[in-house]
Specification:
8 helices, Rossmann fold, 209 residues, 7-stranded mixed beta sheet, globular, two-stranded parallel sheet
């Protein structure tokens, strides 16, 4: 399993991402965490990845909500799945409705792709999304999809990923303090990441910068 999980953007050590990728340089940018908003923010994602020599294009999970349009083969055609930040509950719902959640789990088990991203992208990998309602709105799921919010994470990580922690100037730093307080009260395992920090997973090896 190969993961490159950043607090914000590509972080301070993108060389680790390139090491995980090896010769592969084709990326799908998945921006469904931005579905509740007017912009998808791709104008920042493509140039940042291009600077690293990564050829990126958008893969919109909404295009796969029809069960007759399976997503697994399209996901497997990329070397990197890059999940940008935004609303974690919108992202989780889009993953479930498209079947991307199960497909990604299978790809990671087979070490067939690198999972990368920041903020909501890593957060959705936790066992549970409980507590993140203190920073991300949940009612967007009902508005977008007419369905109840999903609080189950993908369970790829065995702890909650807390981005933007102790990062002066980031608008979500204060709300992340409330999330951490919730995790402390409830006994939820978690790890905090300041903007610039990344968690790199390569098989059994874990590096936290």
């Amino acid at each position: 399993m190969r993961l490159y999980l950043s607090s914000f953007r590509t972080g301070d050590h993108p060389e680790h991402l390139l090491s995980l990728l090896g010769a592969g340089r084709r990326a799908a940018v998945i921006a469904n965490s931005m579905d509740p908003y007017e912009t998808r923010g791709l104008e920042t994602e493509f140039p940042a990845l291009a600077e690293l020599g990564i050829d990126a294009e958008e893969l919109d999970l909404r295009d796969y909500f029809d069960p007759d349009d399976p997503i697994a083969d399209d996901l497997a055609s990329f070397d990197l799945l890059w999940f940008r930040g935004g609303n974690v509950f919108a992202l989780r719902q889009a993953m479930a409705k498209s079947g991307a959640d199960e497909a990604i789990l299978d790809l990671l088990r087979r070490d067939a792709v690198v999972y990368g991203g920041y903020s909501a992208g890593p957060c959705v990998l936790a066992p549970s999304l409980r507590g993140l309602e203190l920073c991300d709105e949940t009612d967007v799921v009902e508005k977008l999809y007419g369905e109840p919010v999903i609080f189950d994470g993908l369970g790829i990580l065995d702890f909650a990923f807390v981005p933007h922690y102790d990062t002066p100037g980031h608008p979500e730093t204060e709300s992340m303090n409330h999330v951490v307080a919730y995790y402390e009260r409830e006994g939820v395992p978690y790890r905090t990441f300041r903007d610039g920090q990344v968690l790199v997973v390569n098989g059994d090896e874990r590096i936290m910068t």
